[in-house]
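Annotators were shown the component list below and the corresponding predicted structure, then asked to write short factual statements about the assembly.
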Amino acid sequence: MANDATYESYYVPTDSKLPIFASLGIFLTVFGMGNMLNEMKAGVDSSFGSWVLLIGGLVLAATLFVWFSKVIEENHAKLYSDQMNRSYVWGMSWFIFSEVMFFGAFFGALFYVRFFVVPWLGGEGNRVPSDYLFYPDFVGAWPMVDTPDPTRFPGAIEPMGWYGLPLVNTLLLVTSSFTVTLAHHGLNEGNRRKLVGWLALTVGLGIAFLICQVLEYQHAYAELGLTLTAGIYGTTFFMLTGFHGAHVTLGTFMLLVMLFRAMKGHFKPDDCFGFEAAAWYWHFVDVVWLGLFLFIYILGS
Amino acid sequence: MSAIIEEHHHDDHHHGPAKGLMRWVFTTNHKDIGTLYLWFSFAMFLLGGTFALVIRAELFQPGLQLVEPAFFNQMTTMHGLIMVFGAVMPAFVGLANWLVPMMIGAPDMALPRMNNYSFWILPFAFTMLASTLFMEGGGPNFGWTFYAPLSTDFAPPSVTYFIFAVHLMGISSIMGSINVVVTILNLRAPGMTLMQMPLFVWTWLITAYLLIAVMPVLAGVVTMMLMDIHFGTAFFNAGGGGDPVLFQHVFWFFGHPEVYIMILPAFGVVSAIIPTFARKRLFGYASMVYATSSIAFLSFIVWAHHMFTVGMPLAGELYFMYATMLIAVPTGVKVFNWVATMWQGSMTFETPMLFAIAFVILFTIGGLSGLMLSIAPADFQYQDTYFVVAHFHYVLVPGSIFSIMAAVYYWLPKWTGNMYDETLGKTHFWLSFVGVNVTFFPQHFIGLAGMPRRIPDYALQFADYNMVSSVGAFLFGFSQLLFLFIVIKCIKTGKKATAQVWEGAHGLEWTIPSPAPYHTFSHPDEVDLKEAHG
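Structure shown to annotators:
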């Protein structure tokens, strides 16, 4: 075997109990959630669904914890070649691409509503007769504060502005993209203090963003009358910013885990896939926010 | 070659299969997982097929005989969902699992534990989906395309479980596709360039890309439904400023690429089989790659041809009509290449080749009716008639499903080490071929005559052809039990297969022994690239 050094052997893990528990966990999570939602809608109040949801969520979380720990362990045991690491890099990149497409569906819905549906409902285009018959008083405008059918969708008092909290949030997230890059520089220089410091600041900025978003939602509900059920403006506003907020939460959590790992000294300049994956995810979340800030807040209000 | 494989096979970090049932639950082996996908898919094929036979039994005669209209609706819905997401897609993923690593000289899929996760989500998802049939209010009854508001304001409560089942399928598909893409991009044997890959690998690379791009959009649209149903949002409600047509746009942005997800791997299978039995190299390999890529690209920009009658602006109608017609060009390139491959070849007609030739002919019929449907003004007449049903069943049954059967017959000796019974295989082919055409060909006529789809009763003038169609459906359905018997028989017994199996077969998978050892290509230097592609 003289040419051993010319190729890398690819580590194929043996049988694993993890995936079946993860499958069970995710199944119980969604089944419990479905049961809970259906009972809420039917006005039944047994807590069966919420218990199943809780158990499923715990099983899933525990399994993923063990799973990721095992991967880190295998990495420390030097089981992974460069080629294997490239698989993880590709895997994460394609996962982020799938997330882009998920947001694409909601952005697409926003654009379609804004540029086609609302003008049509207001009487433009070739659907005039039906829309005129159903909603003769409706005037198409964006942001849609008054809905065609206020009995079911009450509409809002005032749309959300871009000035104030949204602007603060933009500054927070853009800054955090820089701080996470500075942390990466610290990692590349082998300077753990720099890495941990900037990473901790990034996590802090993520949490600050989320707090601001909660305040913004409170403001929307309490003062602007802007709710999830207010009509399509509230729908697109809360669904897009809400899903983004969920992704910020996940991203912050990922960075927090990386912070603990950095403090334990897990990363080296040539061995830091976990950190890089979290950082890419963070940049992705940041870019989505810039899209939201432009299309929801600035052009939408 | 084989001596080297044997030697590596006993390396200490390689294990044979575990004993007992748990082997299948815990496995990370691409061949085991491929087998699981294929058996799961066959089980779903029989379940979805049973639903189809309920439909055809009810339609055997005009009037209502066997089932209530409400149950009929659940049958048409569940038949479509189970066949698309449970039978066709997992079958192709199973083939990818078995074949892609062997074709590119990789030791396994790139992310083997996630591979197991992708599979084992599916039985949970489909159990949940099927269980909706026993829930209060019945199962999903709004058609497999689940148009809002039928699937939101007017849906039975079980729609919530349907939504979450779709979420699970989506998660499974996305993880499975990421695995395929990463395997192909990162685990090819040293020296194998992209343009040396077998066409099946190419088609799966493109399919996986499509899946990663559109399954999240499906997740998005069912999430919008969930929000409209349970949280009072207004996505699909004009009263709140939304639009039911928005549902159709988002759904078909997923749905049209989905159509190609179900046919591109079939193109790959046929492109592997025809050269083998024509004993010629594939005609126009590079043009096949470019045609496949073009079809994938076009699939993103033609979705609204499913919605010509919803009241789009005229410019939209025209754009989507012409863009759709463009697809005929790369598809024509492919059909031309298959025929040119057979031209002057020394052809023999074993079962896989019979299925492959039937694929080329019958898929082309389905493609031509598709071209008819792409003409917007004509589509106003065809919309929601049995002509549409005939069209997409021609591309899906003698298209996708015939290619899956061809693939099973073609690679079964490699998987099991035994040859299947050729006489029984050919019998299965002819029964299926006759059954499929008797079932679906008359549906063109009743569709053109105006019979609407998804309705349990019909006017008397459609009676004869419906009866013929139902007879064909039962013939086709029960023929599949013969398929099951042939596969089981081949696993248990049969003439031992050689490594190459077929005289004209080329490709890395034919350089390893039959049955394929549990671990193959564990070391990259085992690969003989001269055999890489046919």
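Statements collected:
1. Chain B has one domain: 27-526.
2. Residues 27-526 of chain B form a domain with the Cytochrome C Oxidase; Chain A fold (CATH 1.20.210.10).
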